Amino acid sequence: MGKKKFKIGVVGAGYVGLVTSSCLAELGHNVICYDKDKEKIRELNKGKSPIYEPGLEELIKNNLGRKLNFTDRAEDIYPESEVIFICVGTPSSQDGKPDMSYVETCAIELAKFITDYKLVVEKSTVPIRTAEWIERTIKLYNPKANFDVASNPEFLREGSGIHDFFQPDRIVIGVNSEKAKEILLQIYNDDDFKCPKLITDVKTAEAIKHASNSFLALKISYINMVADFCEKAGIDVDLVAEGMGLDKRIGRSFLKAGLGWGGSCFPKDVKAFVKMAEDLQVDFSILKEAYRVNERRIEVFIKKVKDALWVIKGKRIAVWGLSFKPNTDDIRESPALKIIPLLLNDGAFLSLYDPKAMENAKKIFPPSDKVHYANSLEESVIGAHALAIITDWDEFKNADLNRIKDLMLTHIIIDGRNIFDPKKVREMGFLYYPMGKP
Ligand code: UGA
What we know:
It is built from 18 helices and 14 strands. By secondary structure, it is of the alpha/beta class. Bound molecules: uridine-5'-diphosphate-glucuronic acid (UGA).
């Protein structure tokens, strides 16, 4: 397969759009990324990434002004681009269904500019049949338009997005025409991408994305129920997970028990899959339960804090971790957003620390006499009655616990992510409350 370089337009400078555009530019394509947010585009044109993602800013800087450009004007992207990746947001609306208005706007805007053939590729996580709606919308606004709509679902994880783009487990290409298939196989050619490539029709590709995300969420909820069982039975859930994971049919990944799944994908996607199924008269009760199990993780954790501290009112609690997972500054649907208000309601004083997410958290919990943002791990625990761990950043795993102990007033750790060895921390003199362990 030849390595043709394309003129590629990427709509949306969010997490998926930025990783996609900078990685495609790195592969030598001419990429223009479009977002209506003028401020974001201004910063991007200075080489500044609006999100923290390891390696992203370097890729942007490497390619900026050459293979990679950013714009806030529709006329800069649509006329020139041969392939257009739609990476706009599809946030949850009130009823749990995704709000598709950004995708629709994109189709309407694009329709006006189609004079010769274009391939429109949906990368955002979208309901089944979205491609059909995009096609219908473009035709409504430009009946003569010559185009295909394909689905190339995104499987990137935040925090390792660049790695996942270049080394994916698989690439799913949902197409309804030979021409669309040829183009996508040239972009994802065998030299650059050695992984298996699955070619399906468009609807199937859309379904694969939902079925995958919901399965992973289900797997985590399952291990969290096993964790509750283990705790009562006096067993260590991490050992159970290790034993399960050695079975190739099960696998070790996504069996980390703790505070459950957050982020901009799993909570929204599980709800959306349940709704989609409901529309087709399928009761996806197993996913509804996975969702409930996930919500209960917060109660389990708060109960541990209460068991550990007896009275929360007036206590100083150091909180480590605000992002929904490590290596990102993203706090969307982070357990921290639920735990912090509950602790504040009970009258705690909080000292919050996160390596990357504090600026985002300040917009929701502004600093006050009850909420302090610490500059370091050490500062956060000074005079603390307890330490609550919400995210499993490496910096926390590598903390000097002797030093931490010296700085705390009473030595209690409630660990929502099981980052420490219970035996070791207990030997050091901490009262240690992990998740799913004796
Ligand atoms: C997830 C999927 O893993 C990606 O494949 C997908 O592309 C992405 O959603 C998306 O749809 O855009 P992401 O949300 O970035 O990626 O994060 P994950 O690494 O999947 O973690 C999700 C949540 O599950 C985090 O809150 C994490 O702490 C939690 N988790 C993960 C566990 O509690 N236990 C585990 O064993 C693994």
